[in-house]
Amino acid sequence: MNKSDLTFNSNGLIPAIIQDADTNEVLMMAYMNRESLEKTRSSGYTHFWSRSRKKMWKKGETSGHVQEVKTILYDCDKDTILIRVKQKGPGACHTGHRSCFFTDIQGHTISDEVFSAEDVYGKQDDS
After folding, report:
1. pTM, rounded to two decimals
2. d(CA 101, CA 80)
């Protein structure tokens, strides 16, 4: 894969879908810029671009729930990345769930938390 072949949006970002390499469960979706994609490729662990904080971050840098990269794929339009990972630790979601996709379209929670987000990240301010 050549990074120059990929189509980044006008903000220099590309969506990255993160999938468990063993179970095929979709764990999360985040954005990458060219730098975070290169850091992911060179380190073997996922790194993303935070749109709210305007900085690169390593998944698991606070929780220890890092994602070891197994495969990086891109779609036919070259505008979305799929990263297959070995999820370290119980979950990928900052809410304490294994996957960020734990709510159905009616708003029902369909899976339980697998770790305490408060214990890992401290009390979160909802404002």
Report:
1. 0.89
2. 18
Structure confidence by residue, pLDDT tens digits, 50-98: 999 999 999 999 999 999 999 999 999 999 999 999 999 999 999 999 9
Place of tokens 């050549």: 2
Alpha-carbon distance of 105 to 108, in angstroms, equals: 7
* Nearest C-alpha neighbor of 13 from the set 67, 61, 52: 52
Please classify residue 68 by burial: count the beta carbons closer than 10 Å to its beta carbon, then call 0-12 exposed, 13-18 middle and 19+ buried.
Answer: middle
Nearest to 28 by CA among 5, 7, 4, 57: 57
Q: Among residues 122, 125, 116, which one has the least CA distance to residue 90?
A: 116
Q: How far apart are CA 107 and CA 28, in angstroms?
A: 18
